[in-house]
Structures are given as structure tokens and as C-alpha cells.
């Protein structure tokens, strides 16, 4: 016997699987023999006040309930989990993934569905698969996403990743995205709900943070065709920015084909569930089915232990607020192990290591497609169970801008030709300088300002000489000589140009002054 608070939206889709599980448990020959499992349920309407009232009403009416199953909404699960602890009642949730429900804070709370923390390692294994070691993160500043993000940072650091930038947002995302782009973050891990996902990818389109240079890895768990909802940009822009994004999600049912504890396969269960559910559907239906089985097996274990320890007692003698009964149920549920329709079921610190679905958005026409699975029980990434990844370009994006430093050398042939020309120019200038000094008293040379001519020639010689130093590289000189060479380059070229151009300008100014002198003698 157990109490099941459900919410209206999820409840209608899971009730067929609950009833199916109860039928299978009660029909099974070796499970709870001589007992019949019953469920008392109520609709919490996803309202904390309604949920708590329903809980207390059901605790004070009818026979004692052995365990508590639910709820789905966090703001309902939280107060009920706190209340059930004081009743020493073991609780199992089939749909609440909030990471705040830890064993330390809620020792009586278990969940058959993986929490948000469980979606970190699959993304890390993908990063390792594609050799991405430099990443950035962005998360919604709410407890559900912030707590999972904190755990993500720890997991990334433990696995040796470089976290280049971490950004959070509360009311707008443009600033956070701009900082990620400024840091040249190419691989972005995002933790946010689908409403913000629409806004983020619209903004990413404006900032050109998409295409062959970027990859987004999202926490996911969004509703079916969530990108079709109204967004702050056009559908075309949204799907363009979203293209090739990778999302994690709950794996609805196991794909291994293993026989489950109830004697049927996951496919057989799917057929029976579809036959019973009508138009209602919940993504948690498989976890609900396995949750009922986990509780049934736990109750059976308690019944066996009570029978061995207290021959005069049975589970019908269960009482609330009894620590001994509480510990019996906690131990029994902690040690439950079986093959369920969602995969292997076993609890680690009151949480389950479930399989995670990996999806990729491959364009507006195709939408989200399965590209793989991650089995947390075996820490195995299986990319052969889905379609191939789609990339814009031939290969996956790089996690950083590659900066290649190439050591280039001056072509020795070209350098030899230029040095020869420079030496020839220096020799020619030396000849002109000697001629100018030797014939400085000749009338024509004297009239051309020989001293300025000397400065022009010396400037040209220094400029020619700078060509020799400018062409020197590490193959023609030692690394230690480069400080002197670099200084010499600058001074030779600067001094040569200054002397040659300065002297030439002085000569030009002298001629200008002569021809513009207005004080002419007239005869």
C-alpha cells in the first residue's frame, strides 16, 4: 500500500503505467505472494498547498501507507519530502529532477528518474570523444540550473578541462553571450530552460555565435518540438543558430531488448502502455512503471526481513513515526536491483544511474534526432545506436582559434642580389663623395653646395647599408646579436633618410630663396 500524489499534467500520462505496473506486480507469482498491492492517489494540481493537504488527509485516513510515490512538481515535492521525513516515511519520485534533493538534505527521498546532475557526465564524455578540451559555460541563475552547473564545473575540472569563461544570466543574455564571444569560446555548455533557450539562440544569431565555428551542448529535457514555440526572432534565424546543437534528455525506454523483472521487454511494455493510455502521454511513464516495481520489491524485502526477525509481525503491523520501520524500508529500497523498462535500476546515494539520450538538432525539416546513448551504470558512451552527427563543414568545430607560428627565412639568393646592389650603391656613392670633395672648388660644384651634396651622399650610403642589416635573420646571424642588429637597422635607416632628405630640402630651399629675392639691382 502506498500513497501517490500526482499533478494534473504529468499524472494523466503516468496513471496508465501505474495501473499497468500494479497489474503486473499483483499477477506475478514470486512478488509479494499472499499480498495485494494497492495505491491511494490524489491530484496535487502542481500546487504546494493542495499537495500538502492531500498528503495529510491521506495519512490520517484509511489503512497505513507503507511508502510514498511522487511528486512531479518541485514546489510540491519539497514540502511533502520534508513532511514525510518527520513521518519516517520512505518517498520515491518518478519525475522530479531538481538537484537539491540530495541524500544529505532529504535522507528519506529517492528518485527513479535521473537528476539534472546526471546530464553532466554524458556531455563530458562527448567533449572527450571529439577532443574538445577548452570550453565555456552559461547557465540560468535559478537553483535548478545553478546547482547542476556548480556540479558541472567540478566534473569538468576533475576531468582536466580548461574552463575559459563562465557566465550566468537572470533577465538578459546579450552581455553573457558577448563575453563568451570576446573570450573566443567555441564549445559552449548551457544549462537553462526552453523559454530562455529560444531567447539565447535568437541572440546567438545576432552575435554570429553559430555555424562551423561553434558547438552548443545543452542540458535539454525540453518539450517535444520546443523550437516551434513563439520566439523573439524569426523561425529561420532561430533554427539556423540552433543547427548542430547537441542536447541531452531522458531515455524514455531501454533499447537493449533485455527481459525485464516483469517478464516482458521494453517494446512489449510500450505496446501495452500505448493501448491503455489513449490520447494522454507522459515522458516519465517508463520511470513510473519501474518506480512501482522498485517499491514492490522493497516492500517484499521488508516483509521477508520482518518475518525472519519477528515471527509474530508482518508488514501489516507497519506504523508511522517508527524509526525501525523507517530503516527497514530505507535499506530495502537502497538495495533494490533489477532490470526495468528504462534500463538497470539501482540506487546510489538515493539516486539512480540511468541511461541518458543524446540528441542533435539537424535543421528545421529534420529537427532533433538521436545520435547516441550514455549508460551511467557502465560509464559507456554509445554513438553507434543513433544517426551520425551533422557538422557545418567536413569536421567538428575546433575548441579554439589555432595560432600557428611559422619561422620563415629570407631567401638567400634574393638577399645576395640585394646586398650586391647595396654594396654597388655604396661604392658608387663613395666615388661620388670622393669626386665631390676633390673638385669642391670647381665653379659648378661650388655653386651646387658641395657640403649639402656630401650629406646627401652619406645619407644614401647609410640607407644602402641598412638594406644589409634589414635582410639578416636567424640563419645568417646568432639570436644573441639580434638586439644590436635591430637597433642598428632602425638608426641606419632613420639617419640615412634624415640626412639625404634634409640636405635635399635645404638645397631646394636655397634655390627657392634665390629666385624669390625681390631686392634686385636694376641698371
UniProtKB/TrEMBL annotation:
Biological processes, Gene Ontology terms: gamma-aminobutyric acid signaling pathway
Cell location: Postsynaptic cell membrane
Protein name: G-protein coupled receptors family 3 profile domain-containing protein
Residue ranges of the TM segments: 412-434, 455-472, 478-505
InterPro entries: ANF_lig-bd_rcpt (IPR001828), GPCR3_GABA-B (IPR002455), GPCR_3_C (IPR017978), Peripla_BP_I (IPR028082)
Keywords: Cell membrane, Coiled coil, Disulfide bond, G-protein coupled receptor, Glycoprotein, Membrane, Phosphoprotein, Postsynaptic cell membrane, Receptor, Signal, Synapse, Transducer, Transmembrane, Transmembrane helix
GO cellular component: G protein-coupled receptor heterodimeric complex; postsynaptic membrane
CDD domains, per database record: PBP1_GABAb_receptor
Pfam families for the chain: 7tm_3, ANF_receptor
PROSITE patterns found in the cross-reference section: G_PROTEIN_RECEP_F3_4
Family designation: Belongs to the G-protein coupled receptor 3 family. GABA-B receptor subfamily.
Taxonomic placement: Eukaryota, Metazoa, Ecdysozoa, Arthropoda, Hexapoda
Membrane topology value: Multi-pass membrane protein
Coiled coil: none
G-protein coupled receptors family 3 profile domain boundaries: 414-523
Leader peptide range in chain numbering: none
GO molecular function: G protein-coupled GABA receptor activity
Amino acid at each position: 500500500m502506498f500513497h501517490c500524489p500526482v499533478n494534473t499534467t504529468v499524472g494523466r500520462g503516468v496513471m496508465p503505467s501505474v495501473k499497468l505496473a500494479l497489474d503486473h506486480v499483483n499477477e506475478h507469482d514470486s512478488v509479494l505472494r499472499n499480498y495485494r498491492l494497492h495505491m491511494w492517489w490524489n491530484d496535487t494540481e502542481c500546487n504546494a498547498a493542495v499537495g500538502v493537504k492531500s498528503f495529510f488527509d491521506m495519512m490520517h485516513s484509511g489503512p497505513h501507507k507503507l511508502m510514498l510515490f511522487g511528486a512531479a512538481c518541485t514546489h510540491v515535492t519539497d514540502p511533502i519530502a520534508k513532511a514525510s521525513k518527520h513521518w519516517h516515511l520512505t518517498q520515491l519520485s518518478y519525475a522530479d529532477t531538481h538537484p537539491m534533493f540530495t541524500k544529505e538534505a532529504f535522507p528519506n527521498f529517492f528518485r527513479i528518474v535521473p537528476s539534472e546532475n546526471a546530464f553532466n557526465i554524458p556531455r563530458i564524455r562527448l567533449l572527450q570523444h571529439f577532443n574538445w578540451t577548452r570550453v565555456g559555460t552559461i547557465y540560468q541563475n535559478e537553483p535548478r540550473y545553478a546547482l547542476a552547473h556548480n556540479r558541472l564545473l567540478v566534473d569538468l575540472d576533475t576531468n582536466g578541462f580548461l574552463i575559459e569563461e563562465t557566465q550566468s544570466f537572470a533577465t538578459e543574455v546579450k552581455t553573457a553571450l558577448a563575453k563568451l564571444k570576446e573570450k573566443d569560446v567555441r564549445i559552449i555548455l548551457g544549462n537553462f530552460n526552453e523559454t530562455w533557450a529560444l531567447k539565447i539562440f535568437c541572440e546567438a544569431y545576432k552575435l554570429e555565435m553559430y555555424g562551423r565555428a561553434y558547438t552548443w551542448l545543452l542540458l535539454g529535457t525540453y518539450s517535444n518540438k520546443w523550437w516551434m514555440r513563439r520566439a523573439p526572432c524569426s523561425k529561420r534565424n532561430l533554427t539556423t543558430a540552433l543547427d548542430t546543437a547537441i542536447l541531452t534528455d531522458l531515455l524514455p525506454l531501454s533499447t537493449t531488448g533485455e527481459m525485464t523483472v516483469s517478464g516482458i521487454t521494453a517494446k512489449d511494455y510500450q505496446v501495452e502502455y500505448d493501448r491503455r493510455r489513449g490520447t494522454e502521454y507522459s515522458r516519465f511513464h517508463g520511470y513510473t512503471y519501474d518506480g512501482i516495481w522498485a517499491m514492490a520489491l522493497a516492500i517484499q524485502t521488508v516483509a521477508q526481513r520482518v518475518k525472519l526477525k519477528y515471527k509474530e509481525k508482518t508488514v501489516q503491523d507497519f506504523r508511522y513515526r517508527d524509526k525501525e520501520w523507517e530503516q527497514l524500508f530505507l535499506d530495502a529500497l537502497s538495495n533494490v536491483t533489477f532490470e526495468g523498462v528504462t534500463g538497470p535500476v539501482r540506487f546510489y546515494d538515493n539516486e539512480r544511474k540511468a541511461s541518458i539520450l543524446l540528441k542533435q538538432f539537424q535543421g528545421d525539416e529534420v529537427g532533433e534526432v538521436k545520435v547516441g546513448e550514455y549508460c551511467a551504470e557502465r560509464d559507456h558512451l554509445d554513438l553507434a545506436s543513433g544517426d551520425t552527427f551533422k557538422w557545418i563543414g567536413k569536421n567538428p568545430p575546433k575548441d579554439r582559434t589555432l595560432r600557428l607560428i611559422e619561422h620563415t627565412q629570407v631567401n638567400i639568393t634574393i638577399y645576395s642580389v640585394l646586398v650586391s646592389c647595396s654594396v654597388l650603391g655604396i661604392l658608387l656613392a663613395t666615388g661620388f663623395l670622393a669626386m665631390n670633395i676633390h673638385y669642391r672648388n670647381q665653379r659648378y660644384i661650388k655653386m651646387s653646395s658641395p657640403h649639402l651634396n656630401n650629406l646627401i651622399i652619406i645619407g644614401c650610403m647609410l640607407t644602402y647599408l641598412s638594406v644589409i642589416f634589414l635582410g639578416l635573420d636567424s640563419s645568417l646571424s646568432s639570436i644573441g646579436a639580434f638586439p644590436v642588429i635591430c637597433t642598428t637597422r632602425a638608426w641606419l635607416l632613420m639617419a640615412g633618410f634624415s640626412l639625404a632628405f634634409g640636405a635635399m630640402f635645404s638645397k631646394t630651399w636655397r634655390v627657392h630663396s634665390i629666385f624669390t629675392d625681390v631686392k634686385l639691382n636694376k641698371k
